[in-house]
Design the sequence.
């Protein structure tokens, strides 16, 4: 797997889009990186930029962006709601694929050293890039902010990791490090009180609040045996939070950094803030995502809120996202566009999913054209997807059937299985055509020299082998999907039993159609042991499929 890291620099400018554009232009000038998101905030006077790429390209782009920000942003004149210490306030690197956190941390150090030496900016390492754990926390490093750093930087314990021992008047100082994926998330309140918002933030954040005698605000601070303040922990692990007032929106917010969404997911943070706000007579009205979010976070949120309603979670990806957005109120302050906010969607290679993006008419027209692809393999995969879609529909209808309320979880589980098979088979629609195109590409390789001929032959065999594996995968998926279809014929909503029957017919046709492709492609393989084994397995799947179809149709006809 190729190495891929994400970079999320925060620049201390959120109002002048001309300045922001000059900074992002520097990022986009580097080959090997892709700019994913630019998220300016007027009240915070801060812009969060997200881009990804191979490690060296990313740190090259980050350096150019930090350089441009130091030229354009004057921190001596900066005002904003968010804590900050420099023109590029913080620049984290996040491992995404094919690279460890340790390796990512080394790239962070390399970037930090370059910035310190070449730009004359003091740089502090944080999180995984910082060995000294007493100064690895961003909020601890940034304490005092821009104004306080002129004195702080002179303290022996706050000597920068790289760069001069001076706080740059114009550019300030910068924090660079490596960390896990962090979700920046703000929750909106029906109050304008920063103090009340802060109280809720202290209730939930992991660090909690300082324990006091008597009055929790003005009482004497309780200390331990060593004289250190005693803290009352908050209710959420891996969560940092503060309260603030956003003049742009006219409301107070809980501003949160969810540092490990496997420990505290977005939906749990939201619900806990709702609970604590209610206890203080305040209502949560919605929330706001800053930057990007992993797809799984929203799918988990959608699933969570459907489960709370005792509704089937076996719905489409787009429906889960819609439920998550509405439940979290992510569209309260501005439209929420999943294609611009979900990291996987921004990285998706649409050229590999061309067919399933077509309308039904476009797909039929493309199939009927003079082009040899899509062919029988893609059509078989699509028939299989339609078959299990019918089975999934019966499961979802059954979960909502009046009088069957106590069985919603049973049918929700079946619907989730159905959605899995549907999604996998839809991928195979394009993958079968992609496999065919690989064969065509291999045949088009040069064959002048003996070495070229050898390489061409090997490429043709590799592509042909893959072209047998794809339809064989379709066979397996379709056969396995019939478990859902059979169950829905047996115990699902009886009014939809014929839909299950049609689903079984589709699955059987898909298995037999895909097997034809397996056999014709396997015939061109020189690895006869492989092809014979695949054909033998295919024969077994085909016979089992026919028998299962017969059993399902008997159930259907008996009920009719």
Sequence:
């Amino acid at each position: 797997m190729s190495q891929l890291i994400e970079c999320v620099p925060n620049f201390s400018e959120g109002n002048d889009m001309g300045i922001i554009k000059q900074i992002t232009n520097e990022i986009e000038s580097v080959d090997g990186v892709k700019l994913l998101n630019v998220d300016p905030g007027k009240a915070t006077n801060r812009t969060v930029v997200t881009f990804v790429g191979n490690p060296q390209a990313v740190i090259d782009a980050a350096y150019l962006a930090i350089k441009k920000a130091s030229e354009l942003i004057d921190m001596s004149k900066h005002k904003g709601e968010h804590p900050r210490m420099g023109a590029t306030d913080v620049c984290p690197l996040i491992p995404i694929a094919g690279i460890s956190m340790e390796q990512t941390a080394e790239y962070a150090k390399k970037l930090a050293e370059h910035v310190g030496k070449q730009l004359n900016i003091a740089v502090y390492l944080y999180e995984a890039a910082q060995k000294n754990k007493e100064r690895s926390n961003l909020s601890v490093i940034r304490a005092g902010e821009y104004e306080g750093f002129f004195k702080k930087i002179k303290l022996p314990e706050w000597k920068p990791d790289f760069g001069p021992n001076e706080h740059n008047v114009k550019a300030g100082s910068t924090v660079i490090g490596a960390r896990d994926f962090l979700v920046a998330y703000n929750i909106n309140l029906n109050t304008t009180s920063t103090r009340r918002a802060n109280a809720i933030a202290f209730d939930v954040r992991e660090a909690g609040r300082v324990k006091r005698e008597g009055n929790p605000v003005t009482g004497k601070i309780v200390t331990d045996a060593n004289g250190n303040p005693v803290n009352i922990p908050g209710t959420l692990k891996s969560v940092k939070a503060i309260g603030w007032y956003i003049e742009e929106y006219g409301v107070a917010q809980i501003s949160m950094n969810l540092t490990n969404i496997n420990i505290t997911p977005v939906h749990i943070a939201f619900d806990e803030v709702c609970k604590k706000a209610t206890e203080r007579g305040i209502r949560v009205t919605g929330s706001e995502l800053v930057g990007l979010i992993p797809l799984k976070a929203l799918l988990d949120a959608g699933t969570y809120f459907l489960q709370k309603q005792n509704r089937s979670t076996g719905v489409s990806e787009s429906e889960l996202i819609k439920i998550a957005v509405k439940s979290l109120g992510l569209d309260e302050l501005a439209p929420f566009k999943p294609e611009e906010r979900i990291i996987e969607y921004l990285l998706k290679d649409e050229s590999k999913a061309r067919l399933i993006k077509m309308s039904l008419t476009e797909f039929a027209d493309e199939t009927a054209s003079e082009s040899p692809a899509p062919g029988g393999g893609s059509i078989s995969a699509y028939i299989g997807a339609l078959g299990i879609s019918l089975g999934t529909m019966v499961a979802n209808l059954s979960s909502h059937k009046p009088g069957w309320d106590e069985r919603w979880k049973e049918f929700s589980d079946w619907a989730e299985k159905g959605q899995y098979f549907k999604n996998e088979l839809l991928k195979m629609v394009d993958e079968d055509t992609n496999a065919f195109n690989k064969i065509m590409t291999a045949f088009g390789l040069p064959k002048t020299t003996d070495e070229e001929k050898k390489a061409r032959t090997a490429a043709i065999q590799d592509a042909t082998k893959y072209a047998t594996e794809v339809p064989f995968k379709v066979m397996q998926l379709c056969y396995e999907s019939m478990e859902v279809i059979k169950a829905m014929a047996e115990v699902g909503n009886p009014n939809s039993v014929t839909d299950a029957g049609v689903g079984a017919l589709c699955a059987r046709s898909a298995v037999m159609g895909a097997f034809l492709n397996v056999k014709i492609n396997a015939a061109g393989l020189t690895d006869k042991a492989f092809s014979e084994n695949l054909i033998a397995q295919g024969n077994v799947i085909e016979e089992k499929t026919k028998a299962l179809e017969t059993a399902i149709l008997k159930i259907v006809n008996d009920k009719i």
